[in-house]
Amino acid sequence: MANWPDWLPIKNALRGNKIYGAPQLQDVVKLNTNENPYPLPHSVVTELTSEIASIATSLNRYPDRDTVKLRSALANYLSSKHVTTENIWAANGSNEILQQVFLAYASSSCIGLSPSYSVHPLIAQITGSEWDSLPLKNDFTIDLSALLTRIEETNPSLIFITSPNNPTGGVVEFKELKKIAEFIKGRRTLLIVDEAYAEFSSEKSAIELIEDYPQVAVVRTMSKAFAFAGARVGYLVADSNIISGLKIVRLPYHLSALTQAAALVALKNVKLMQSEIQIIVTERIRLREEMTKLGLRVIDSGANFLFFTGFQPNSQELWQSILDKGILIRDVGIEGFLRVTIGTPEENEQFLNSLKTSLR
Ligand SMILES: *Cc1c(COP(=O)(O)O)cnc(C)c1O
User: Fold this and answer.
1) 94 within ligand 1 shell (Cβ under 6 A)
2) pLDDT tens, position by position, 216-271
3) pLDDT tens digits, one per residue of 281-291
4) At what angle are helices 240-249 and 93-105 packed, to 10 degrees?
5) What is the pLDDT of residues 59-76, one digit of tens each?
6) How many angstroms separate the CA atoms of 46 and 23, rounded?
7) pLDDT at position 350 over 70
8) Ligand 1 pocket, residue 67 CB under 6 Å
9) Is the CB of 112 under 6 A from ligand 1?
10) Ligand 1 center from residue 243 Cα (angstroms)
């Protein structure tokens, strides 16, 4: 807990907060924040640099407030016949999208599953929204009937499902999401599906529900599969009415001209930007097998990371011992479990070796 000076009018609701974020250390193999380990292809860097140079002279002007070109390029990328520019909204990372969703729509309590993406309850808290969390089953799958009962009881304004889930990696089947979408018909509720890792999974996207179920909205990001985390681009796919509400709460000109231009270059080069997804998925499968051979229990993952348990010593000690060997992974605060991001094949070997010598 922070020590706030008396003169600081910090809100009561925030007094107990710690500053969120994973450690950012130098000179380590970074396998802790689910980034894509591959740097931008050289040709994209060149194109991006010249694009930024060409817009630099007009940086005296505000950017396109509604980011129309970018939204159109994102719609094109999704190539779903129901998705047009009107169904896309963009912001500085999907975290900003999530914050806008809370600001506009958290009109009663919000519900999410646990463990899941810890930023959802964090944004609920900082926006003054009530958060209700329902545990996943022991195998980290959704207890659908418990969720529907809870929705019936509490009438939440927002329901959050992350698929593939972070930190577990578990994928929620399309047909299960459809059941939730069906259940909330006629209620004043939105189902927000956070698909930050969709490109690493073979499951059908919840985007395909939006046409028939306008209360479903899908949150996506360019931070993971696109290897573009530093640019901060996230987006939402939804019925245009949902987007109208987000336009009320977004800050004027929230997405800079530099960001919009950079994202457009990335989207023009989707194939190149995403050329390593298959390697990452193959490595995920290989790493899971190798870790299982070491006696670990590794949760089935549709993302670019693995969540594992079944080790001695405890999480903190194993995390530290692996860090001492130069590999930074993530302790998400669930005792007995750790999460590792899939790196390059070389990085994964280094991780495996550090794990072998750290396990007791
Ligand atoms: C990484 C992550 C995000 C945030 O991504 P940004 O677009 O970088 O803000 C959102 N949701 C989940 C589940 C994530 O793991």
Assistant:
1) yes
2) 999 999 999 999 999 999 999 999 999 999 999 999 999 999 999 999 999 999 99
3) 999 999 999 99
4) 90
5) 999 999 999 999 999 999
6) 31
7) yes
8) no
9) no
10) 19
Nearest to 70 by CA among 238, 194, 255: 255
β partners of residue 133: 112
Does ligand 1 have an atom closer than 6 angstroms to the CB of 162?
Answer: yes
Q: How far is the CA of 149 from the centre of ligand 1 (A)?
A: 28
- With the most atoms of ligand 1 within 8 angstroms of its CB, the residue from 120, 201, 224 to mutate is 224
DSSP letter (8 states) at residue 204: P
Other CB atoms closer than 10 Å to residue 355's CB: what's the count?
24
Q: Which atom of ligand 1 is nearest to the CA of 33?
A: 1
pLDDT of residue 18: 84
Of all protein residues, the one whose alpha carbon is nearest to atom 12 of ligand 1 is: 196
> Cα–Cα distance between 276 and 200 in angstroms, integer?
10
Residue 22: pLDDT over 80: no
What number of H helices and E strands is found in the chain? 12, 12
Q: Is the pLDDT reported for residue 120 higher than 90?
A: yes
Distance (Å, whole) CA 245 – CA 21: 29
In which band, very low, low, confident or very high, does the pLDDT at 1 lie, cut at 50, 70 and 90? low
Ligand 1: centre distance to CA 360 (Å): 33
If you measure from the C-alpha of residue 54 to the centroid of ligand 1, how many angstroms do you get, rounded to a whole number? 30
Q: What is the DSSP letter of 330?
A: B
Calculate how far, in angstroms, residue 225's C-alpha sits from the geometric centre of ligand 1. Answer: 11
DSSP state, 12?
Answer: G
Closest CA to 93 of 235, 192, 194: 235
